[in-house]
Design goal:
Helicase, Ruva Protein, domain 3, lyase activity, alpha/beta, five-stranded parallel sheet, 305 residues, SIS_dom, 2 domains, 12 helices, 5 strands, Rossmann fold
Amino acid sequence: MAAGTETLAARYRGLDSWSDAEILDAFWEGQARAIGAIRPALPAIAAAAESLAQRLNAGGRIVYAGAGASGLLAAGDAMEIGPTFNWPDDRVFVLLAGGTDLTPGLKGDVEDHDHRGRSEAEALKLTANDAIVAVAASGTTRYTLAVMEVAAEAGALTIAIANNADTPMLQAADRAILLETGPEVISGSTRMNAGTAQKAVLNMLSSLTMIRLNRVHDGMMVDLRVQNAKLRERAIGILMHITGASKEAAAKALAACGDRIKPAALVLAGHAPAEAGRILDQHGGSLRAALLSRESTNLQRKQGS
């Protein structure tokens, strides 16, 4: 059985007496090992993303749950999917042991508050279309387990990300993602190796899910929220790349469509702003399918004339 996150590794005995270069090299080695631990989990991540996309496509919500450093990483992913993919803010929630007060100095006892986890999850009135993404290096956190239990009772999808094998969270989950990052350089400091792997997998899981929900086109964020000058320039650049339009035309189309990239791309392809949204809806929000439909229609017209 692989060594767990709480194992005191002989490899790092005397760590505090090492040179700065030796310590940093050990940290680097640990971080590289953490990323390497993700590859065996890729099939599990893919399966989780498929299930998650199905629930969200049916109108469900995504709920991130965790405690301590793992909870903060989960909360970070939750905060980013709205601006990046325009995922509705009212369909993403964070259940963080001890609450979402980010004053420095995490309280360690709150992860044992399973009663809080249960009551906070029950307050969301979860349904079978919802999904929980639960994260804990140990795989045993009582608060997070309680959230998963409530979700399971409601028929919601449960996804667990943990760094120790054969633990309660992974055993209870519909979709279990094991990241065997092994002992930490500083024993038990799972914000390091375990946290690095968790951060990467959270990003991979949510990004793959959003791709399957048609919120990415050719590796570009075609649903991003245009909230500042930098993002406006990015949006215009995306439109220029997709359609071959000039910067001026792309900016005009973007403005005509309320700063929404996908309808603007259809406007640049010849549609009226009023019908662009309807066409996207007909194709499940897929810009690729909508543009191909436009090309097919134009071809048919040419062949018929």
